[in-house]
Specification:
alpha/beta, binds nicotinamide-adenine-dinucleotide
Length: 324
Amino acid sequence: MNGAGRMLGYKLGLDSIGAGILMALDFTGRVAIVTGAGGGLGRLHALALAARGARVVVNDYGGARDGGGGSSTAAQAVADEIIGLGGQALAHGASVTDLAAVADMVAQTMAAWGRVDILVNNAGILRDKSFSKMSVDDFRAVVEVHLMGAVHCCKAVWPHMVAQNFGRIVMTTSSTGLFGNFGQSNYGAAKMALVGLMQTLSIEGAKYDIRVNCLAPTAATRMTEGLLPQEVLAVLQPEAVVPALLVLASADAPNRAIACAGAGTFAAAHVTLTHGVHLGLTADTPERLIEAWAQVSDRTDDSVPASGAAQGSNEVGQALANRR
Ligand SMILES: NC(=O)c1ccc[n+]([C@@H]2O[C@H](COP(=O)([O-])OP(=O)(O)OC[C@H]3O[C@@H](n4cnc5c(N)ncnc54)[C@H](O)[C@@H]3O)[C@@H](O)[C@H]2O)c1
């Protein structure tokens, strides 16, 4: 950790790591872009990366929780905070929904620092309503920021990461996407779409050492204000999510993980496949399928497929085995 990092690090309570037996995760020489870093979790991710030596592009378009409004003041304030603590930071007020503005942000990053190692897709908005009351515009607006915003940022950094033979991309997903939540169909669909994006980018990026992972945080921020009871919010310090982000952004990151982090607890979520049952194709297959439903969904011996091909292999394998 460099001098500036130590100064920022002390602020974030990292001095105990320096004194202990753990090897500190070091981001010296790395360049990171964190979207939506003008407040909430993104600001803490940016501060923590800077504290450990990264040069950080603080992106935020500075809008309201529902995506309205906008100014680059929030991003600039966090960049100033990092610089004031001795770190290196740039502010960029691009909306992640604006492909040209995102391209400009990455061009400015390359012009200033010549590389981009880490992309944290963190920007997000909420427009909660039950599906029956939700307008298609509210659905689309949420998908635009979370999904297309991440697509724009990935697209802009990807060629640089390929050329560098190194990249770490973190998609911020959500328990709502993974498991559902009343009133958040737009948000959940967009957040699970990020898992889908991660699944394929992690496969395509592997040969360039581009590792792509998802982070599902739980934290008391303006996003969860009023949605969770006060005593629950009190234990959900947003700082407790940051260790998971640092691991996913590090040189030793896993690839294709879905990390869940909140209140100091860390877990992994998986998209799994049951072994299933081969029923073949006869006139009564639908009836036998209803009969066999418990066996179809039985999780004994389920797997986490390494790619989509695993489903077809399982199906064809069982069909061929049953033919013999
Ligand atoms: N807080 C939680 O418990 C929780 C749970 C699951 C997922 N998340 C996700 O974590 C991320 C951070 O959320 P947070 O809780 O810190 O909320 P937050 O509202 O404090 O932070 C989101 C930031 O994104 C910025 N932003 C919004 N639209 C943008 C755009 N188009 N371009 C650039 N910046 C934009 C906002 O200005 C804001 O600063 C979000 O993706 C959110 O969906 C949060």
